[in-house]
Amino acid sequence: RWIPPPSEYAKINVDAVTSKNSATASIAAVARDDSGAFLGASTVTVTGMSDPETPEVPACRGGLALASDLLLQKVRLVSDCANAVRSIQGEGLGPHGHIIREITATMKNFPRIEFIRERREANQEAHMLARGALFDSCGRRVWLFNPPEGVCIQHLLIP
Fold first, then answer.
1. Which of 10, 85, 95, 150 pairs as cysteine with 117 (C-beta 3.0–4.6 A)?
2. Domains of the chain and CATH, by start
3. Among 129, 145, 107, 156, residue whose Cα is nearest residue 14
4. What value, to the nearest 5°, has the Cα angle with vertex 5 and ends 106 and 33?
């Protein structure tokens, strides 16, 4: 189930999915306010990735891009990938150093932003959106007013 952010924060859940057969990856971000109201969502689909962990840091970057699109000020960005969150929190650049540096620079545009890890069960909307985007053509898609099909799933939200 979705876990609400602190009061006055927006929460952006991000996730990444890969297909080993087609070497395609998709990332997704879903933004909600502290009451669970839909704010926006985005997906990015790329080719040339088949390792499941490779697109997780770019998924965090995609979440930041959505936060910028929505002009959010207080953001809690959530991933279920502990390695991605640790890398962004400064515990190591690893193979994604260039993306981590971009994320760190972009974070300065937000008055309040935090990256945290939550268990996979709390990240189902972003996971399902990313999984559906595997079949899209390459590129970025953004939903700013109405959620994409399959995202506004009330039973996943805590009442």
1. 85
2. 10-146 (3.30.420.10)
3. 129
4. 80
Predicted TM-score (pTM) above 0.90? no
- Element spanning 143, H or E: strand 139-143
* CA pair distance 99, 150, nearest whole angstrom: 29
Cβ atoms 153, 38 nearer than 8 A: no
- How far apart CA 151 and CA 125 sit, in angstroms, is 6
pLDDT, one tens digit per residue, over 96-128 is 778 888 888 899 999 999 999 999 888 889 999
Distance (Å, whole) CA 136 – CA 102:
26
Residue pair 29/76 in contact (Cβ under 8 Å)? The answer is no
CA distance 143 to 158: 22
pLDDT of 50 > 90? The answer is no
As a whole number, the mean pLDDT across the chain is 87
For 137, what's the count of Cα atoms within 13 Å in the CB-facing half-sphere? 0
